[in-house]
């Protein structure tokens, strides 16, 4: 007996009208609109890292404060020399000029007193009080030099330490506002305007009386 071969049945193609009907169905349209409405996810640009503030050097701050105390007593040409990487002796020089023995002494004494009392930094050593042409105040981490004009030109520390960066220190203190002093008004005293009017009236009355006598 011979075997009967089964014929392969191919699926009948759907009619064009049925396909259009299926495509136009609300489910298909809704799925298409949902896909179209979805926007591609945009990647956010990475945020730039915030710049960290530079660390504050407390020794530099103290040296600048000592410079301000020199300016308080009218110290001239006050400068800060940064000696980092140049010498292991100290970190900063503060240089100021006084025009006389008296001013040099006043500047040096003010720096020592204010750094001790206001900043809690007593001076380790000071010298030059005999001649007062160059007073040196050693705070270990920085040294303050108060010169008279000729001594500063002669020793010329800015030139001797020429590799050190130099900062000219300006006066950062706020100017004190002048308060207007009002004189206390005594009891029974008339205001200035009323007193002026009264004086004019007296003069005019005097003239009238004088004219009548004539």
Whole-number average pLDDT? 78
Number of strands: 6
CATH H-level superfamily title of one domain: Beta Polymerase, domain 2
How big a fraction of the residues is strand?
A: 5-15%
Could you name the ranges where pLDDT drops below 50 across 5 or more consecutive residues? 202-214
Oligomerization = single chain
Kindly name the structural category: alpha+beta
The CATH topology of one domain: Beta Polymerase, domain 2
Biggest pleated sheet: 6 strands, mixed
* Percent helix: 25-40%
Second rung of CATH, namely the architecture of one domain: 2-Layer Sandwich
Describe the structure.
By secondary structure, the protein is an alpha+beta fold. The chain has a domain of 111 residues: 2-Layer Sandwich (Beta Polymerase, domain 2), CATH 3.30.460. Helix content is 40%, strand content 15%. The chain is built from 7 helices and 6 strands. Strand 3 and strand 4 form a beta hairpin. The longest helix has 22 residues. The C terminus is likely disordered.
């Amino acid at each position: 007996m011979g075997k009967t071969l089964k014929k392969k049945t191919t699926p009948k193609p759907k009619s064009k009208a049925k396909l259009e009907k299926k495509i136009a169905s609300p489910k298909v349209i809704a799925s298409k609109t949902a896909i179209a409405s979805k926007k591609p996810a945009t990647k956010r640009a990475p945020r730039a890292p915030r710049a960290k503030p530079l660390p504050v050097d407390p020794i530099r701050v103290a040296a600048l404060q000592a410079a301000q105390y020199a300016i308080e007593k009218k110290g001239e040409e006050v400068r800060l020399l940064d000696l980092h990487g140049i010498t292991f002796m100290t970190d900063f020089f503060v240089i100021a000029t006084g025009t006389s023995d008296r001013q040099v002494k006043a500047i040096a004494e003010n720096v020592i007193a204010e750094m001790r009392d206001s900043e809690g930094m007593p001076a380790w050593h000071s010298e030059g009080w005999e001649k007062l042409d160059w007073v040196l105040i050693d705070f270990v981490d920085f040294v303050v030099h108060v010169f008279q004009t000729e001594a500063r030109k002669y020793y010329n520390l800015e030139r001797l330490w020429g590799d050190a960066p130099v900062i000219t220190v300006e006066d950062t203190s706020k100017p004190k506002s002048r308060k207007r002093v009002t004189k206390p008004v005594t009891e029974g005293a008339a205001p200035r305007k009323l007193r002026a009017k009264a004086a004019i009236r007296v003069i005019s009355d005097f003239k009238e009386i004088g004219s009548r006598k004539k």
